[in-house]
Amino acid sequence: MRYLAPGSLKEALDILRREDDARCIAGGATLVAMMNADLVAVDVLVGLGRIAELSGITETDDEVRIGAMTRHAEIAASPVLTGALGVVRSAAGQIAHPAVRNMGTIGGSICHADPAADFPAALLAADATIEAASAEGTRQIPIGEFFEDYFETALREGEIVTAIRLPRGPAGARGHHVKFSRVDGDYATVSVSAVLVMAGATCSYARIALGSSGPVPIRVTAAEEALVGSPLDQAAIAEAARLLAEAADPVDDVRGTTEYRLMLIPRLLARALNTLKDGETASV
Amino acid sequence: MKIEESFTVQAPIDRVWEFITDPEQVGPCLPGCEEIEVLGPTTYKARIKVALGPIKTTFKVDVEVTEERPPEFAASVTRGEEGGKASRVSADSTLALKALDESQTEVTYASDVSVVGRLGKFGLGIMKKKAKSMGEEFAAKFRVRVEGDGARAAEASA
Q1: Average pLDDT, consecutive stretches of 10 residues, N- to C-terminus, chain A (284 residues)
Q2: Which band of pLDDT confidence, cut at 50, 70 and 90, is reported for residue B43?
Q3: What span, in angstroms and rounded, lies between the C-alpha atoms of A140 and A133?
Q4: Whose CA is closest to B107, among B94, B121, B115, B96?
Q5: How far is the C-alpha of A11 from the C-alpha of A46, rounded, in Å?
Q6: So what's the pLDDT on residue A79?
Q7: CATH entry, A174-277, from 3.90.650.10, 3.30.390.50, 3.30.200.20, 3.40.50.1100
Q8: pLDDT tens digits for B92-128?
Q9: Where are the domains of chain A?
Q10: Which of A5, A59, A235, A240 ranks highest by number of CB atoms within 10 Å?
């Protein structure tokens, strides 16, 4: 195996174009573990750690831009991820343990596309856009089109995710991510990401995504419609949860049976919505 | 890991039986099947490529048909391993055909698959989902081939 460490994005893209079977490594939190377990064999490993332009969080009036190589820990502590974007900050703070959060990156996490990871659902709830670069140029991929199947994304050969772009969201929005896991630091058995706007006691906006509930994160507009206009009472939450569970297709494994995971959906949805309704900002 | 699925084909049972028990016909319907070699009336070899995200591998398997009751039941044993890697796969499978009427057949297959070695470390939950989606792909290709050929045969004889 050869390890290459380009110093610029352009250099990295050139390597990907030149080399067959090259694989990018971001923080290595997952890929190194998979290589150690002999699950993945790589001929050419392209380390992205030296590319400064891929790191950091910047903001404009309309959006917050998170560089693909930004570590989970930095996202979890970011003072600019407020309001609706609290859903992303809250998810980052719940990924694994501090050691993993100091290594793992948001770009690496979404490119791996593990359906049990926390970022996919949170980014769907936040209506993110994924920016990907290749030797041909840059393109923007709506988050709803990015995840395609278990561990598969819309990313093409030779492309690198450069940033995750997050729109500010509607005025007054708040976001939160809740997960249930067997033990602290484990992958989610089920997770729920929610962004809400309350107008007095009535919900005026809702965007909800389920994680660990199918090959890709799940969003059901009918479930959101069931919440909007309601006071987020038990009946509205139960109806939204029913619609979400109907669309879910969770696996049956060591983290929970399919049936158990479906049972968690209404409970976690209620927990996420009640936290937001009560006006607590997303804190983990 | 137990898998059981069924699907319906618009073709008579005898035709489905003839097709499904012929490795050279059915091979191209198997997702990832790159090569199939008939060794004898009840044994054959196949090379099957499987990919799950970053994990890509090829299994070389030997299949032995252990029981056949035409045109409705067959059982087989599959044993195989990854080329050069340390995983082994084995499966006991059954196939049952049922005529729903003269031109429709229900195909039911069941398989008890075990994977040991490096791939055994990977979540069985997702493997099972993957097997299900491969099964759906198989059913779709199978239908196209059997129904398509059947339609052409009917035209030719008309």
Answers
A1: 96 95 94 90 95 97 97 98 97 97 98 96 98 97 97 96 97 97 95 96 97 97 98 97 97 94 98 86 44
A2: very high
A3: 9
A4: B96
A5: 10
A6: 97
A7: 3.30.390.50
A8: 999 999 999 999 999 999 999 998 888 877 777 888 8
A9: 1-47, 174-277
A10: A240
**Interface contact flag, B125 A251, Cβ < 8 Å:** yes
Strand partners, B57: B50
In this chain, the answer to whether the domains covering A1-47 and A174-277 adopt an identical fold is no
CATH number of the domain located at residue range(s) B2-157 in this protein: 3.30.530.20
User: Which chain A residue is nearest to residue B122, measuring alpha carbons?
Assistant: A39
Domain at A1-47: CATH code: 3.30.43
**Contacts of residue A68, Cβ cutoff 8 Å, sequence gap at least 6:** A26, A48, A54, A105, A106, A107, A108, A160, A161, A162, A163, A164
Report domain extents, chain B: 2-157
Contact status of B53 with chain A (Cβ, < 8 Å): yes
β partners of residue B98 = B106
